[in-house]
């Protein structure tokens, strides 16, 4: 495992432990920060996640005899989106009820996002990306984690600070350990990537795409154009 992967993992853990401290308290600054984060996340989905999912599907041609169509991974991605949407639906319903239901919804959401963190951390380690590429994509995922963690903190700040952030951070560590100690087949890794891609697409569009009244559009547009341009340039010159 490269030093860059270690740095990215520590960065992810720090984000979950300090997410509520990283978002500015001032409303205007907070909206600009979330618009910046949302723009980077949306760009990351369209210029990296979706093309990578297509690339993983192409690699499965080696298993053509056992596959029935050319879109298996897309179905797995759709399953990831569906499961996390179902969790969000349950959580939004129980938050309107009593304290016991809100506690149950907090743990349901925390457990699912811990699994989500674990799978992302595993994918980062298993992908064997190194150097500036690891840091570049790590920043985008890190900002995505900030938005997700901030959303969980906003819904239940006391519980998140007391235990939720540590549970979420443990998911990063567990994914690390699994990635270092376990070697899965390429098709299994592709399935994991597809699942978290679907979940990430939902989380980005639901939690990070700013509402019209809350968005600082110049910051949002700047983030999209800048990150997309840099990604395309790096892909062209370094064939990432």
From TrEMBL:
The chain crosses the membrane at residues 6-23, 35-53, 73-91, 103-129, 135-153, 165-181, 217-238. Keywords: Membrane, Transmembrane, Transmembrane helix. It comes from the Bacteria. This is Uncharacterized protein.
């Amino acid at each position: 495992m490269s030093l860059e992967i270690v740095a990215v993992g520590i960065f992810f853990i720090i984000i979950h432990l300090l997410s509520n401290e990283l978002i500015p308290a001032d409303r205007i600054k907070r909206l600009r920060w979330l618009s910046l984060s949302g723009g980077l996340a949306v760009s990351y989905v369209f210029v990296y996640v979706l093309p990578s999912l297509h690339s993983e599907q192409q690699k499965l041609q080696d298993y053509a005899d056992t596959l029935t169509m050319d879109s298996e991974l897309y179905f797995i991605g759709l399953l990831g989106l569906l499961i996390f949407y179902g969790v969000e639906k349950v959580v939004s319903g129980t938050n309107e009820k009593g304290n016991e239901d809100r506690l149950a919804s907090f743990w349901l959401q925390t457990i699912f996002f811990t699994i989500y963190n674990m799978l992302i951390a595993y994918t980062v380690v298993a992908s064997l990306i190194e150097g500036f590429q690891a840091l570049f994509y790590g920043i985008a995922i890190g900002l995505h984690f900030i938005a997700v963690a901030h959303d969980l903190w906003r819904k239940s700040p006391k519980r998140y600070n007391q235990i939720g952030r540590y549970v979420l951070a443990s998911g990063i560590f567990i994914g690390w350990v699994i990635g270092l100690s376990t070697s899965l087949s390429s098709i299994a890794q592709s399935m994991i990537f597809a699942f978290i891609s679907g979940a990430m697409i939902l989380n980005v569009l639901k939690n990070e795409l700013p509402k019209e009244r809350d968005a600082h559009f110049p910051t949002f547009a700047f983030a999209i154009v800048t990150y997309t341009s840099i990604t395309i340039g790096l892909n062209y010159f370094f064939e990432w």
